Amino acid sequence: MPIVVQKYGGTSVGNPERIMNVARRVVATQRAGNSVVVVVSAMSGVTDNLIGLARQVSECPTDREMDVLLSTGEQTTIALTAMALHSLGAKAISLTGAQAGIITDGVHTKAKIANITPRQIRKHLNEGYICIVAGFQGQTLQGNITTLGRGGSDLTAIAIAAALQADHCEIYTDVDGVYTCDPRVVPDARKLDVIDYDELLEMASSGAKVMQSRSVEFAKKFHVPFEVRSSFNNNRGTIVKAELQGLENVVVRGISIERNQAKVTITNVPDKPGTASRIFTALSEANVIIDVIVQNVSISGSTDISFTMNLDELEKLGGLIDNVAKEIGAGEVTKKGGVAKLSVVGIGMRSHSGVAAKLFECLGAGDVNIQMISTSEIKIAVIIDESMIAVAAQLAHDAFGLGVEKAI
Ligand code: ADP
Ligand code: ASP
Ligand code: MG
User: Fewest CB atoms less than 10 Å from the CB: which of 104, 192, 330, 403?
Assistant: First the structure.
């Protein structure tokens, strides 16, 4: 029998009625002649509420206990979903990440999957059960509960689909698929019928939270094509798969935005070997992910270095950057929140020129000031004032003709 893995996100299981809706869809998939594995997220808002609770009892909860706490969100949903399926007369069984055979490393709150042995899933499927697996969680070899980073239920679904060599992997969410830009920001964004792993990976890692970026990376590595679609209707979604012939004809596939960024500038950094390394080693030891980095031309032996990161991460760093700046004999450190990143993504950029010029032109015409620029083979990103991000997204979306049927 074909194996189908379906993942339902937080909004899709956000209340008892929606869990019943999911149960009905799952039963229909089984009745159509499939073995079904369902991965569920915590009900919407639950993970954030748990984080809030932790902060009320401790300023600095340990990552191990955070994982024990956060994993309860998904555990609630698997039990409720199994009960909903029972009430429809279906055979269903809930499984935690550990019971589903998901073994991770020990990096709490952002653990990586080390291997999956879905023995229990296979056994239950063979007995005719629908398996309901808790997303976002796993277990170390020592038996500690871990979580896979925010949005990690996507990764659970893709990883289980890979391990079971599933015939279909479907990611059900609260929009109809992957759009040319977040449809809540750009109202005329268009749903894409198909997108390449690399493009979705760039979009996801630059703020398009429709898929967790690590899950897309995993799908690419283990060749798991999947479909992103809505749990609220039966519309076809977006197929995500390896590059197709013809995809390169579309220069820009989509635009993503990332709010809540911060820009740090260190002035008068001595222009000699090893100083950049001192700064960024200190930040990496603090487990901070640095995004865009710009170093100015050296004037009389010193230079300015600016970089961006998530504002929340900056707040956790305290005086670390100031201390490093002092140690290397640099000048002032300025830290500024209220910036955001806009990224224009498309594998066609590999073979077409003019994308940067067009982006800068449309932003300039719209009076949006660019503070920093970074590029990759298939992406151009700019850092701008956060208050301008929705306007800028719409300007770029229009300039690249993404809202109309055929993108340029
Ligand atoms: P789930 O709870 O199902 O995992 P998420 O909230 O994590 O869902 O992701 C879905 C949301 O992602 C959508 O509601 C949408 O606002 C947002 N989003 C951001 N960028 C895009 C995009 N390019 N296409 C579709 N949705 C996007
Ligand atoms: N519940 C987790 C989160 O909110 C995982 C997920 O929803 O994918 O990040
Ligand atoms: Mg999600």
Answer: 403
Contact between 108 and 147 under an 8 Å Cβ cutoff? The reply is yes
Instruction: Verify whether ligand 1 is closer than 6 Å to residue 210 (CB atom).
Output: yes
* Ligand found nearest the CA of 175: 1
Q: What is the pLDDT of residue 247?
A: 65
Residue-level pLDDT at 405: 62
- Which parts of the chain have pLDDT scores under 70? 244-248, 404-408
Find the length of the chain. 408
At residue 407, the pLDDT reads 45
Taking the centre of ligand 1 as the mean of its atom positions, its distance from the CA of residue 178, in whole angstroms, is 8
- 74: its two tokens: 């998904």
Q: Which amino acid is at 285?
A: E
Token pair of 385 as six digits: 């004032």
- Note the maximum CA span of the chain: 78
> What per-residue confidence (pLDDT) applies to 287?
82
Helix ranges (H only) for 127-208 are: 153-164, 197-205
Residue (of 254, 245, 249, 225) closest to 237 by Cα position: 225
What does the pLDDT look like over 171-209, one tens digit per residue? 999 999 999 999 999 999 999 999 999 999 999 999 999
Q: How far apart are CA 193 and CA 100, in angstroms?
A: 32
The alpha carbon of 215 and the centre of ligand 3 are apart by a number of angstroms equal to 10
